[in-house]
Specification:
- By secondary structure, the chain is an all-alpha fold.
- The strands form two sheets. Strands 1-4 form a two-stranded antiparallel sheet. Strands 2-3 form a two-stranded antiparallel sheet.
- α2 runs parallel beside α7, α3 packs antiparallel against α5 and α3 runs parallel beside α10.
- The longest helix has about 35 residues.
- The chain starts with a helix and ends in a 12-residue tail after the last helix.
- The C terminus is likely disordered.
- It is a multi-pass membrane protein.
């Protein structure tokens, strides 16, 4: 039995390595060769969404936590990166404050901007702050055993509150947000070579994130996370604290979202409250649901597919795309809970059930094959 398990694990590892090799070839060789600079930059944007989707797949698909507020952590990473890039541009031009502050009449740099002028501090903030916020929120929510729709509403309200707060703050761009970044850690963003470097950075980050989540899924923690999703009370009876298990998954998802937001800022060139509110958070979730939240690659493919469809169809149907997106989410959640990744197993099962020859129940066969009881003949005298 042990030998069979070892062989299965070895085969699974080889399959995963082959999949990563194919993905690396597609991202690092095929895509730059066949796509224009504009399309490649657009794909880099989609890869940022895919990084967020991988974390949602871990928290929602494996942990059962309907995270409707990932825009919060995405926005924290994005705004920290934007603040650093703005101050770096201002220092390069010899200005005390960024240009948008001068236009708004702000002559002194706000105190909460100053730490992020340092590149190491900004990078640490991108990695740590989203995780800290998620840990604090998760501790307050999961320790009180808040779950299901209540947790989803709470996380969505947090995203809405952050978007409203940022809209009213002129010190961080207000409604228009932060934009017009000239360089990324010394590399000019107007140079097409540096734009490709950002694509490679996003692609490499996505591969690393997928590899980390796969390791988590196949670890003892991954099994415990699924057990908490399916039978939380039994896990508690066995001596584990389900809240701690959920907090870890929630923090990991926030960590990935913060990194994705930091990459999104220089790739797209702008970050605003419209990119981190309720609507973007739901869009992240729709991509994961359509792709298949319980699988490893389903969230990645779903996020990229939905983002591409939004870009392609919203130009022709600007008012109808939102409704189509909502209909897709309802259809997938209601009729195909496993997403597109579960269509093939479902169709295969239906086909096998349709063409399989009916087998008579064993009890009925036994009854039919039993010999008839012998009847005694009573001779009349």
């Amino acid at each position: 039995m042990t030998t069979l398990v070892q062989r299965w694990r070895a085969h699974s590892s080889l399959t995963a390595l082959a999949g990563f090799a194919v993905a690396a070839v597609l991202l690092f060789a095929v895509a730059p060769a066949v796509l224009s600079d504009f399309r490649l930059n657009l794909l880099a944007k989609f890869l940022c969404f895919a990084i967020v989707a991988v974390g949602i797949g871990l928290a929602w698909g494996r942990g059962g936590m309907l995270t409707l507020g990932q825009g919060v952590f995405f926005g924290i990473g994005a705004y920290i990166m934007a603040m650093h890039l703005q101050m770096a541009d201002a220092a390069r031009l010899g200005n005390d404050v960024p240009e948008f502050m001068e236009i708004a009449g702000i002559r002194e740099l706000p105190s909460f901007w100053r730490p992020f002028a340092s590149a190491p501090v900004a990078l640490l903030g991108i990695l740590i702050l989203p995780a800290l916020v998620a840990a604090a929120l998760g501790y307050g929510v999961f320790k009180r055993r808040v779950k299901g729709a209540y947790f989803a509403i709470l996380s969505q309200a947090l995203a809405a509150a952050l978007a409203i707060l940022l809209t009213g703050q002129q010190a961080i761009g207000g409604f228009t947000g932060l934009s017009d970044f000239r360089a990324f850690f010394g590399f000019k963003l107007s140079d097409p070579v540096n734009r490709r470097m950002l694509f490679f950075l996003a692609a490499g980050t996505l591969l690393v994130v997928v590899a980390l989540v796969r390791q988590l899924m196949h670890s003892r923690y991954g099994e415990l996370l699924v057990a908490v999703r399916d039978q939380e009370e039994r896990v508690r009876f066995l001596g584990y604290d389900p809240a701690n298990v959920k907090i870890v998954a929630y923090v990991v998802a926030a960590f990935f979202a913060g990194i994705a937001g930091a990459l999104f800022t220089p790739i797209v060139g702008i970050i605003s409250p419209a990119d981190i509110g309720v609507v973007p958070s739901i869009a992240f979730l729709i991509g994961v649901a359509i792709g298949g939240r319980t699988t490893l690659l389903g969230p990645v493919l779903g996020a990229i597919g939905v983002a591409w469809a939004q870009t392609a169809f919203s130009e022709e149907f600007p008012s109808g795309w939102t409704y189509l997106q909502g209909v897709l989410f309802i259809v997938v959640v209601g009729f195909v809970p496993a997403g597109l990744a579960g269509l093939w197993p479902m169709m295969k099962g239906l086909a096998e059930g349709r063409f399989r020859r009916p087998v008579a129940p064993a009890a009925a066969v036994a009854v039919e094959t039993l010999p008839e009881p012998a009847t005694e003949k009573v001779e009349s005298r």
